[in-house]
Amino acid sequence: MVTRAMASEPSDASRSTASSAQAAAKTGAGLVSRLGTSRTAGNWIAADGRPVVAVTDADAADAVTRAGARPKVVTHSMQDLKSAAQTLSSAPRVPGTAWAVDYTKNEVVVQADSTVSATDWSSMTKLAHGIGDSVRMQRTQGTFTTRVNGAQAIFSTGGRCSAGFNVTNGQSEFILTAGHCGPAGSVWFSDNTGRQQVGRTVTTAFPGSDFSLIQYDAGQQTSPGTNVVAIGGGNGVRINGAADPTVGQRVFRSGSTSGLHDGKVTALNATVNYPEGTVTGLVETTVCAEPGDSGGPLFSEGIALGVTSGGNGDCKSGGTTFFQPITKALTALGVTLAGQPPQGSAGGAAQPSLAPSTSASAMASQGGAPGAAAPGAVEAVGGTGTAQTFVSELTDPQNVGPGLLVIGGSVIALVATRFIRTEQDRKAYRRQYSQSWG
Question: N or C: less crowded end of the chain, CB within 10 Å?
Fold first, then answer.
């Protein structure tokens, strides 16, 4: 189980960093909502921490300035950009492509990986030219894949994912992870020999979205109501709430393969055409990820933001990684973060918890460079007893090995390499998704 030893209280400076970032995001989003999508084209947080709002006319720019934000006059409204994205979505699907609105450049950026043929690239380029200068075509290195071990791991009898957060429906507790990790009925274990069963996938959404629920087996979740993200070295970051990310926000991701890494949010509502199918509404980031990191948590300043879906590149050369927004997953599944009051309850929204500057420095040494933001408050993971020793060993990415890293509660990190499924189950799964993929 998780020990309750916490890091020292956040310093005043770290508290102001958190409140400033949240205030910037709130100010920008509020202005976009008030001025409307015909006069704005998104908002983001600038490098200096100030909110920026893209606007299409001088009056809107004045309103943004009066509100204490920075206006940027652009040509295309959000309505224009969404229309362009809709046209792209209506065209025949090309695996290996992705697109998202780049608020900072006022354009829809279409990416095509190395698997996209010259013919398909030419067809998409013609489509983009027909839409107009609001669309920019861009070739990218590597391939857009879901981040499990092996391209076809969702069909195999073995694979590895990372779970994101503990969630609850008020009666049972579950692990929230990526939908592409396995179909409903998949059995998960805490070791690579399949001796200790953790739970079973009870709900999954993929393609279209990318999230699923693994219900804990009786007795496996012995410390209910907790959410601690393992970051290596026997440490974890406590999660205190959930929210939508903002373009320009510095974020952190932890996974069973590559550990803790950081980057920035570059776009929202991204569409990715994986080989297995199309997923929409994703968060696009510069955070790296590798096979096995699928389903792992995206967070910042103690706030849950999403779970790892897929991308290209790795943590040596870098790349783009996409995340399923956690707020959409929680709403669709009818669950809340474990340990948090339901939205609209008397308890209200949980307040974020920042790590002190000393803890932020420790994060950087483990792979993250916090910059203007920190992952969140740090606490030790470990203790005495069989269960605690087991969890303590698994929280260090160097000790994980093949398996599922499950974060939170009494089982912070779990390793699963086997979906023990019969051939009939696997065939049923193929039939199920072949209909969805068309």
Answer: C
Q: Which residues are designated catalytic?
A: 180, 210, 294
Strands (E), 301-411: 303-311, 321-325, 336-337, 378-380
What are phi and psi for residue 287, nearest 5 degrees?
A: -70, 135
Per-residue pLDDT at 345 exceeds 80: no
Measured in residues, the chain has a length of 438
Q: What whole-number distance in Å separates Cα of residue 359 and Cα of residue 376?
A: 9
**CA quadruple 371, 377, 380, 382: dihedral sign:** negative
Chain-wide mean pLDDT for the chain? Answer: 75
H or E segment and range at residue 30? helix 12-35
pLDDT at 200: 86
Q: Tell me the C-alpha distance between 350 and 328, whole Å.
A: 18
Confidence of residue 125 (pLDDT cuts 50, 70, 90): very high
Residue with tokens 């075509």: 137
The reported pLDDT for the residue numbered 356 is 29
Q: 110 forms bridges with which residues in the sheet?
A: 99, 137
- Please report, for the chain, the start and end positions of each structural domain, with discontinuous segments joined by +: 1-21+80-438, 22-73
Q: Facing residues of 158 across strands? A: 418
Q: Is the pLDDT of residue 173 over 70?
A: yes
Contact 273, 98 (CB under 8 A): yes
C-alpha distances out from residue 61 to 9, 21, 27, 74, 107, Å: 40, 21, 14, 10, 19
One-letter amino acid at 424 equals: Q
245 vs 315: CA distance, rounded Å: 22
pLDDT tens digit sequence for 251-275: 999 988 888 999 999 999 999 999 9
Give 54's pLDDT tier (boundaries 50, 70, 90): very high
Contact 416, 161 (CB under 8 A): yes
> Could you give the residue ranges of the DSSP H alpha helices within 349-422?
357-365, 386-394, 397-400
| Residue for token pair 């709403």 | 331
pLDDT in tens, 72-124: 999 999 999 999 999 999 999 999 999 999 999 999 999 999 999 999 999 99
Residue 177 pairs with which residues in a beta bridge?
Answer: 212
Quick one: pLDDT band at residue 393, thresholds 50, 70, 90?
very low
Give strand ranges (E) for 218-318. 228-232, 235-238, 241-242, 250-255, 259-274, 277-285, 297-300, 303-311
Q: How far apart are CA 406 and CA 167, in angstroms?
A: 12
